Amino acid sequence: MSAYSLARSALFLMDAERSHELTLAMLSRYPQTGGLLAGAIVDDPVRLMGLDFRNRIGLAAGLDKNGECIEAFDRMGFGFVEVGTVTPRPQPGNPRPRMFRLRSDQALINRLGFNNQGVDALVTRASRARRRCVLGINIGKNADTPLELAEYDYLACLHKVYPVADYIVVNISSPNTAGLRQLQEAERFDQLLVKLGEARETLAQRHGKRRPLLVKIAPDMEDQQLLEIANAVRRHGIDGLIATNTTIARPGLEALTVAAEKGGLSGAPLKPRANQVIASLRTSVGADFPLIGVGGILSGEDALARRQAGADLLQIYTGLIYRGPGLVAECAQALAAHR
User: Fold this and answer.
1) Catalytic residue (one of 19, 173, 174, 284)
2) H or E element that contains 336
3) pLDDT tens digits for range 173-190
4) End-to-end Cα separation, the chain, in angstroms
């Protein structure tokens, strides 16, 4: 039994969020543990969006919301690490309990609600992190900010993270902040992208570098809406899409008591839909537009399938919890062997 398997057995005896917090605390204090748990690090370089990635496997946003463990995840061998989602002001998120394991399905349900320490705390940590990996920062709005004022939260975060991020992700797809997904609707989406695009150009001139700007979308959309989003991001000069966030659907889980918990579902049950969305987006945006695939990647075989569906880069989260740090190298090696 591996060291991670032993640790997981103990952690899984605890509440899901409590074990998550303990793991982050350990990785934050002892970042070298990331490398010890991961073992091999795979170098399979790729250049995308003007950035050089060690390999195509990244850590998805949501696991390290406050940027406390950037160095540890770098040592695990990730090609890129995405921290956040971060909001302008600190907020506690939704009431506990708010994270649930579905162990037999290798899945999680969470309704965390952008719990984070605020953008200033994250920027301070990100600026001090010693890393080789590419760093992405995922930004959102505070829960008490009215939807019609959401653009100001995104702009505030964009300005603050711009100097320390290698790329920036606009999260309009979490199901756990009331009304947030309405920002994916055509008129609101266009308005937000215009404002962010203007701000990005101003920041690029001020800092002398143009940071890639991406949008993370939900899996719970019809094909027509996916097409509209694909058209909008290309029209507004957005650099890439991340697909997908968690789902409010419960594919094959309706009979399970825990599946009735509100929140976003991640892990293996999301895999078929996440593959479909990537394939649909690739058809819509063409061969040259960067796509990052996330959702239900729990093996090297899953990684290869997502790559073949059209993803340029991949991210893992729930798979890391169930399979452990060795999954990073497994997925990177699978992709390196099938270039």
Assistant:
1) 174
2) helix 326-336
3) 888 898 888 888 878 899
4) 32
